[in-house]
Structure formats: structure tokens, C-alpha cells
Design a protein that fits this description.
The structure holds two protein chains of two kinds. By secondary structure, chain A is of the alpha/beta class. Helix content of chain A is 48%, strand content 10%. Among the domains of chain B are: 231 residues, 3-Layer(aba) Sandwich (Rossmann fold), CATH 3.40.50; 45 residues, no CATH class. In chain B, 51% of the residues lie in helices and 10% in strands. In chain B, helix 3 packs across helix 12, helix 9 crosses helix 10 and helix 16 packs parallel to helix 18. Chain B is an alpha/beta fold. Classes of the chains: A alpha/beta, B alpha/beta.
């Protein structure tokens, strides 16, 4: 993401005091601890002009809890398309790719088809459809551990759709889903890898 | 009610390949029908807003609306009873049935009567309750319970139902494989009951305070038979089903069928107001049931669950429900709405795993016709259970606390990143058995992002935030 943003002319800073936004704690029921982390996030980034996050899930959660830095916190594809007005980021990625749109990108953030529009302008890319794309992959943070069996049933269906797409890379605008889908693809030695959208957009 | 808890009950359900097949097929079909029906309504979002607002107003003025409803029903010749809980309600209904010397009563499909275990309670008083909704009948004949709000036998397929009927109401017959012929067996069985049983029991989709009108929507017409043919009609209605005005129905009769069965209009909409001489039942009883609902109203976030109109769109859209089915929720209210309603009605400590039975994907909220923010209520209830009912010394609480402390400090966070490089593999896999059953953990890169960042930005650390 740093490479991509710098190529587009942004000056990038990385406040090293940042850790976690606290979503995992809040969504698991530990609101006090989680919201303290969200407030810590706001303090760490208080001086930034714009904060860009490669995770729609974290952005949606921070905004919902009133810790979105008064509109200065943006999700990556939102920043590229809306703030910079760029859809062609000058990337080249000659591979067969399928996009998992992610629940929080689509339903909580409402980033719509921004990831797709960005991918469509990548040179050499062969973007293929993912069946039942909008259905959850079964991650859900601690859900994947607390309800492991149900999560696995959901993940199995997502893997089937990823493999049926014929893609060699599954991408998304959220690392948490990719951790989940990628972990199972690796376990299965499926020969399909996951890449964050930013990695594809940074490729030349 | 047994209480395995959701993870264990779901584990059992997920192992049933036939169930997975039946459910996957049924829920995807109904999802597509709903989507098409909603698509064609240009003001769908405005209708959802109206539905949410009407329900919020009815709940905010609940005591007043219920008293208006009582007055209206009484004026129209009906009798109104108030039941605090299941036992009171079952006693009232059983008392009325016995007054009329009924050995059998026929029932319109009703979740509320399932919630209070009315059939078993009546059996204890020597009254047999006969379900007339086809799917409820299937469940009753097979001593099974409902697994879906709208389609209680969604977990059954045609073959299973044919075999069941041939062993019960059509004993000794070969019904063949045609769905219509199998359904005909139920029709013959039920017609006889409609014409002979003197007392019917229904639930209510809506009760209009202004006019005293009760509304039931259905597909089969068996409900219509029940509310018109017997001499006595008893309606059990949860107090949250009250609407202030007659005109409110206009909104819900558009929202409900499109959301539930994916139809522009449901085949039968029955409305009745008290009694009318020489036409339909000559005695009408309305039992208003609380059974935990006023407690739910006390929770400012959770009470939105009472706005539910039981359409079941959230079940069909839920990636959890559509794989586990309804029995895993161990309640008559399954799926996302059940995960927020059941713990609140029964007490959080009595259904403590249900609020976690969701990946928080948001599909339920997106389709809810009255815009109940189910994911937010799930998170709220998780917080309440952790605060009010979980030990601070549970392994989970201790782990969350430890991780929280790491996240609260840059120094601890960076040290943990370094340790992760050494400690993952066997140790991490043993710590997360659920995760590691199917997924590898990602490889820890040779260089962390922070190390890379330092390697390209020599000099003092930049942009460090204030110390926490």
C-alpha cells in the first residue's frame, strides 16, 4: 500500500505507536477494552491529514463507534477512487484473478464496486467471476474459533467457488477474509494464492 | 428445552448431509424469489423506513395501544385475556377448550403457541391439538420440531414426507411420488377436522388497536378454515404484535409477503373483528401474552428485536442458518432473529451461546423489512453476557485481557510480533485447534512491515503517536 500510494504522489507516514483498532474485542463482547483501543487509535492518528486503511472492516467499525477521526479515516479503495479520483493506478498484473467482495466492504462500508473498477484497469489482468461472491467466507473474527464447525462449512463453500472460478489469485480489500480463505487454500495445497488488493494495484 | 449450546448443536446438524442439501436448495430458491420481488418495488427503502417507524411508535406507546386494542375487541363482541407467562396463557386457553368440552382443537400455524408449549400443555389437560398447517402437521406427525419460522419442515424433502404420511395419516396407501398426491393425503385428513372440531386456536400477525381487528396471513388456506368453521376461536397474540392504526397494515401487507415467501401478495389474508351473528365463530377470545416481552423492552438496544414481523428473510439470507438449519438454535425462533430474540425472552444466561452464532456478515440487516440492526444487537448482547454472566477468570476473558494489554502498548506489541516469528507453528496450532482443523496460519514474513519501514526510512522514528 505504501508503494502504491507513493507512486500516486502521496507522502506516506506510519505512526509506529499504532497497534489494533479493537474490533476483535468489541465484536467478541469485550467492549470496554475494545473501545479503549479505538480511542487509542484516534490519539495515535490525531495529527494525520488523511488516514488510509487497507481494511474495510476496521474502518467500518471505527466509524460506527465514533472513532473515525471526523471523516479523515478512509478505506483504501475509497481513498483512491473518491479522494484521488484515480481508477487506473498504473498497475500491471498478468494473472487470472477473482475478487471476494467481503461482507464489511459491501454491507457495512458500502464501497460498492470500487475494488472491481480498480482491478478492471490493471494491465494484463484476467478478472474472473466468483460464484455467490457476496456470501460470507465464515471468518467473522473469533467466530472462526468459537463456532469452528459452522465457520468451516461456510469456508468450504467459499473455497469451492474460488476453485471453480479457475483463478490463480483470490483478492479482497480486507486481510481478515484473506487470512481465512488463504489459510485453507494453503492447507489444501490448492495451488491458488491470496493477495490483498493493494498488492495487485502496486504491481508493475 | 435441551441446551447443548449452539456450537455443539450446529456441529451435529452440519454432519447431516441430507439436511445440508435440503436446506441449501430451499434457502437459495427463496432468496432468489425474494430478491426479484423486492427489486420491482421502487419505494422499497421508504417502505422499510415506514415499517420501522410504525413499529417503534407502537412499542413506545405499548400500554396505550394494548388498552385501545382491548376496548376495540370487547366492543366488537370478543373477550380479552391477559397472560403474564406461558403457564398463565396455557391455563386460559385450556380452560376455554374444556368449557366447550372439546377433546380436540385445530390450530392455525403459530410461533407464539410453540413458544409457550401450548400443545403439550393442552395434552396434559386432555385436549389434543391438531396442527393444520401442512408443515406443522408433518412435524407433529413425526414428533419433530420446527426448524424455520415460515417453512417449519424446510429440513424435510418429498421422499421423507411421503414415507411419513404412509406410516401415519395414509397408513397402508401408496401415495406415489407426486407432490400433489402426497399433499392430497393431508388435505383429506384435515378437511374432516375442519368440519368437526368445535374450537380453533390461532396466533396473530397483527392486531389493530384502532379497530380490534386481528390479521393472519398464510399460503395454504387451512388457517382460513380454522378461523371460519369452528364455533369458538381463540387467538394467542404476543403483545408486540399490536399496531396502532388500521392504515398501518398497508405498509406491512406489502413488506411481509415479499420478504417471506417472495410473493407480491400472500394467497390468504384473513382479518376478523370480534364476532358477527350467524357468520363464523360465535365466540372469540384474544389472549395477550407477555412472556418476557416487557423485560426485552427494558433494553434500549435489544428491544428493537420486538419489531420483528416473522418474515424469515434473515434466516434465508444467513450463511450460518442456511448451513446449520433451525434446530441448532434450540428455540422456536431460529436464525439471526432467534439469536437476538431467544436470549432476551428466556434470559441471557439461558441461551448464552446464541449471540455468537453469527459471523456478523450483515446479510440479515440488509434484508430485514423493518430494518432491525441485528448485527449491532448481537454485539450488544455479547457485551451484556460478558459483563453480566461470564467470569473474569474464564480462559477466554484472560486471553482477551492479555491480548488487549499487548495491543495497548507499542513496546509489547512489537515484542509480540518478534515472538510470533519464533513461536508459531506447533504452539500456535495447539492454541487454536478450531482454526487449525482446516486452515494454516499465515507464514510470518522474514521481515515485518515495521522492519521494512525502518530499513527504508533511516533516521529517528517518525510520526510516533502519544504514549498510551
Amino acid at each position: 500500500m505504501v508503494t502504491l500510494l507513493e507512486r500516486l504522489g502521496c507522502e506516506v507516514d506510519f505512526p509506529e505507536a499504532q497497534t489494533c483498532c479493537g474490533q476483535m474485542h468489541v465484536n467478541t463482547g469485550y467492549q470496554e477494552r475494545g473501545l479503549a483501543l479505538a480511542q487509542r487509535f484516534e490519539r495515535v492518528f490525531a495529527d494525520a491529514e488523511v488516514v488510509v486503511s487497507p481494511s474495510a472492516s476496521c474502518v467500518a467499525y471505527l466509524r460506527e463507534n465514533g472513532t473515525g477521526l471526523d471523516g479523515r479515516l478512509t478505506e483504501l479503495t475509497e481513498f483512491l477512487v473518491d479522494r484521488l479520483g484515480v481508477e487506473d493506478v498504473g498497475a500491471t498484473f498478468p494473472h487470472k484473478v477473482t475478487l471476494h467482495p467481503t461482507c464489511h466492504s459491501v454491507r457495512l462500508m458500502g464501497i460498492g464496486d470500487r475494488p472491481r473498477r480498480l482491478l478492471e484497469r490493471v494491465r494484463g489482468i484476467d478478472l474472473v467471476e466468483l460464484g455467490d461472491a457476496a456470501v460470507c467466507c465464515g471468518f467473522g473474527g473469533t467466530f472462526a474459533v468459537k463456532n469452528a464447525d459452522t465457520s468451516m462449512a461456510m469456508l468450504s463453500d467459499k473455497l469451492r467457488d474460488v476453485l471453480n472460478s479457475g483463478a490463480e489469485v483470490c483478492t479482497a480489500a480486507d486481510n481478515s477474509c484473506l487470512l481465512h480463505i488463504g489459510g485453507a487454500l494453503r492447507r489444501q495445497r490448492a495451488g491458488v494464492r491470496v493477495m490483498h488488493l493493494a498488492e495487485i494495484l502496486a504491481a508493475t | 428445552m435441551s441446551a447443548k449450546g449452539f456450537p455443539a448443536a450446529a456441529r451435529e446438524a452440519l454432519a447431516d448431509a441430507q439436511l445440508r442439501r435440503n436446506l441449501g436448495k430451499a434457502t437459495s430458491t427463496i432468496r432468489a424469489k425474494r430478491a426479484a420481488m423486492v427489486e420491482e418495488v421502487p419505494d422499497w427503502e421508504a417502505l422499510r423506513d415506514a415499517g420501522a417507524a410504525i413499529k417503534a411508535r407502537a412499542m413506545a406507546t405499548l400500554p396505550e395501544q394494548l388498552e385501545r386494542l382491548e376496548a376495540s375487541v370487547t366492543r366488537a363482541g370478543g373477550q380479552v385475556h391477559w397472560a403474564r407467562d406461558a403457564a398463565e396463557c396455557n391455563a386460559i386457553v385450556g380452560g376455554i377448550a374444556r368449557e366447550h368440552a372439546a377433546r380436540e382443537v385445530i390450530k392455525v400455524k403459530s410461533l407464539t403457541t410453540d413458544e409457550i408449549g401450548l400443545n403439550d400443555a393442552l395434552a396434559g389437560q386432555g385436549v389434543e391439538a391438531i396442527e393444520t398447517d401442512l408443515a406443522e402437521l408433518i412435524n407433529q406427525l413425526s414428533h419433530d420440531t420446527s426448524s424455520h419460522i415460515l417453512v417449519p419442515a424446510i429440513h424435510r424433502n418429498r421422499v421423507e414426507i411421503k414415507r411419513l404420511f404412509e406410516q401415519t395419516i395414509a397408513r397402508g396407501q401408496d401415495l406415489g411420488w407426486e407432490a400433489t398426491a402426497i399433499a392430497e393425503a393431508a388435505r383429506g385428513h384435515l378437511r374432516e377436522k375442519f368440519l368437526s372440531v368445535p374450537v380453533a386456536i390461532s396466533g396473530a400477525n397483527f392486531g389493530v388497536a384502532e379497530t380490534g381487528t386481528i390479521c393472519v396471513v398464510e399460503s395454504e388456506g387451512n388457517g382460513r378454515m380454522c378461523i371460519t368453521l369452528p364455533r369458538v376461536l381463540i387467538t394467542v397474540m404476543g403483545i408486540e404484535k399490536v399496531l396502532a392504526e388500521w392504515r398501518d397494515l398497508e405498509v406491512f401487507l406489502q413488506l411481509l409477503p415479499r420478504s417471506s415467501t417472495g410473493e407480491r401478495m400472500n394467497p390468504y389474508t384473513s382479518l376478523w373483528t370480534g364476532v358477527r351473528a350467524g357468520d363464523g365463530p360465535q365466540e372469540f377470545h384474544l389472549v395477550l401474552l407477555d412472556n418476557g416481552r416487557t423485560d426485552v423492552l427494558g433494553d434500549e438496544v435489544g428491544r428493537e428485536a420486538l419489531h420483528c414481523i416473522r418474515c424469515s428473510a434473515c434466516l434465508n439470507s444467513c450463511p450460518v442458518y442456511s448451513r446449520t438449519g433451525g434446530h441448532a438454535y434450540e428455540s422456536v425462533y431460529p436464525g439471526p432473529i432467534g439469536a437476538i430474540l431467544t436470549p432476551q425472552l428466556r434470559g441471557l444466561q439461558n441461551a448464552p451461546t446464541l449471540p455468537w452464532a453469527s459471523s456478523l456478515c450483515g446479510a440479515c440487516y440488509e434484508v430485514c423489512p423493518v430494518k432491525i440492526d441485528i448485527p449491532s444487537i448481537l454485539i450488544h448482547l455479547r457485551g451484556r453476557i460478558v459483563r453480566e454472566h461470564k467470569s473474569r477468570l474464564s480462559p477466554e476473558a484472560l486471553a482477551m485481557e492479555a491480548v488487549g494489554r499487548v495491543f495497548a502498548s507499542q513496546r509489547r506489541y512489537e515484542r509480540a510480533q518478534k515472538l510470533a516469528r519464533l513461536g508459531r507453528g506447533p504452539i500456535a496450532n495447539a492454541a487454536l485447534p478450531g482454526w487449525s482443523a482446516m486452515r494454516d496460519l499465515p507464514e510470518v514474513p522474514a521481515q515485518t512491515f515495521r522492519e521494512w519501514w525502518h530499513s527504508r526510512t533511516p533516521g529517528p522514528i517518525r510520526g510516533d503517536g502519544p504514549a498510551p
